[in-house]
């Protein structure tokens, strides 16, 4: 049964990615502006422009351009960046790990903070503490991530400069890496001083991304816990003398976490896309910052590669979340 579901999801993933490829290809071609005109010198002749357009295949009909690009993608060739003059797949492989580590750490912080707030709000229900937590949660929910980023720059980078303002690490303490997952590799290899420097550079962007997501998680999980707390199995456990904390964490949480997990998976993919502005503010070298430059320069191959990567990540994360929800819910697992 699981194999059948995975096969259907794989087919749907291929269809979805093909649809994404068609849409982004057509939208970029009908958008105003000529990428060749933006990268060539002012004194270039018509022959030079025609030669450059032919080099990137922009002189072909749209259908031919799409067929050439799609055939390359199937082979793992995403083309060459017009602005950076480098292989698109190579650029994505360099920048994507930085964004994944940033988004993964932000999601972890959001889950921990949002889960703690939801549990605390459930324990303090019908008390003053619950109203205070709901008010703080509403504030976190109302302020977008880039506003938090600017606030942290002003507070922790300028007025009280305790954290680095930009970059991924201090060049003075950098060391050789086997992979592009610098934080993960530093922790696994025991280079904790380097890991500490990486975390210091990531703290402000992580908090900026995590706080709004933590507010969403807290609200959804608290609603789920409130519904679970009035179920018969919780009432029976209370009659048996279980403490309120054990009722919430040990009994209600298991049944309330499903919708929250599904929401977190969807929000994680949006979090990766949301790093665009935050990475720009902190000059963080991820794909978000690169995406802004690609749009400004109308770098068609790079934009197409970025959108396909975002689409693939969205599909993979949602598939993983669906499997996790099934694994946590016995009724779905045996249904």
From TrEMBL:
Highest taxon of the lineage: Bacteria
Coiled coil: none
Record keywords: Cell membrane, Membrane, Transmembrane, Transmembrane helix, Transport
Transmembrane segments: 102-124, 136-160, 198-221, 261-282, 302-328
Keyword Nucleus: no
GO BP of this protein: transmembrane transport
A GO cellular component entry from the record: plasma membrane
Compartment(s): Cell membrane
Pfam families, per database record: BPD_transp_1 (PF00528), BPD_transp_1_N (PF19300)
PROSITE patterns linked: ABC_TM1 (PS50928)
Boundaries of every ABC transmembrane type-1 domain copy: 96-325
Membrane topology: Multi-pass membrane protein
PANTHER family from the UniProt entry: DIPEPTIDE TRANSPORT SYSTEM PERMEASE PROTEIN DPPB-RELATED
Family, as annotated: Belongs to the binding-protein-dependent transport system permease family.
Protein's UniProt name: ABC transporter permease
């Amino acid at each position: 049964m699981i194999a059948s579901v995975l096969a259907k999801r794989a087919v749907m993933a291929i269809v979805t990615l093909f649809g994404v490829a068609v849409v982004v290809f057509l939208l970029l071609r009908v958008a105003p502006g000529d990428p060749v005109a933006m990268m060539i010198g002012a004194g270039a002749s018509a022959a030079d422009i025609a030669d450059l357009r032919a080099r990137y295949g922009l002189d072909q009909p749209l259908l031919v351009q799409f067929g050439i690009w799609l055939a390359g993608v199937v082979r793992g060739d995403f083309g060459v960046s017009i602005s950076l003059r480098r292989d698109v797949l190579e650029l994505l492989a360099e920048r994507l790990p930085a964004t994944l580590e940033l988004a993964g750490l932000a999601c972890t912080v959001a889950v921990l903070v949002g889960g703690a707030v939801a549990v605390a709000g459930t324990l303090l229900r019908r008390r003053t503490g619950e109203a205070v937590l709901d008010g703080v949660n509403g504030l976190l929910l109302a302020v977008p991530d880039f506003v938090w980023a600017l606030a942290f720059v002003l507070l922790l980078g300028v007025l009280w400069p305790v954290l680095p303002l930009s970059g991924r690490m201090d060049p003075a303490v950098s060391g050789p890496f086997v992979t592009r997952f610098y934080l993960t590799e530093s922790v696994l290899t025991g280079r904790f001083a380097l890991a500490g420097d990486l975390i210091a550079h990531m703290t402000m962007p992580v908090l900026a991304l995590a706080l709004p997501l933590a507010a969403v998680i807290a609200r959804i999980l608290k609603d789920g816990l409130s519904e679970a707390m009035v179920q018969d199995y919780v009432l029976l456990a209370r009659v048996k003398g279980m403490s309120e904390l054990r009722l919430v964490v040990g009994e209600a949480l298991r049944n309330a976490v499903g919708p929250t997990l599904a929401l977190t998976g969807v929000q994680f993919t949006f979090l990766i896309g949301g790093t665009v502005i935050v990475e720009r503010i902190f000059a963080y070298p991820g794909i978000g910052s690169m995406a802004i430059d690609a749009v400004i320069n109308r770098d068609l191959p790079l934009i197409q590669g970025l959108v396909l990567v975002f689409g693939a990540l969205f599909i993979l994360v949602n598939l993983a979340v669906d499997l996790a929800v099934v694994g946590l819910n016995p009724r779905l697992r045996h249904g």
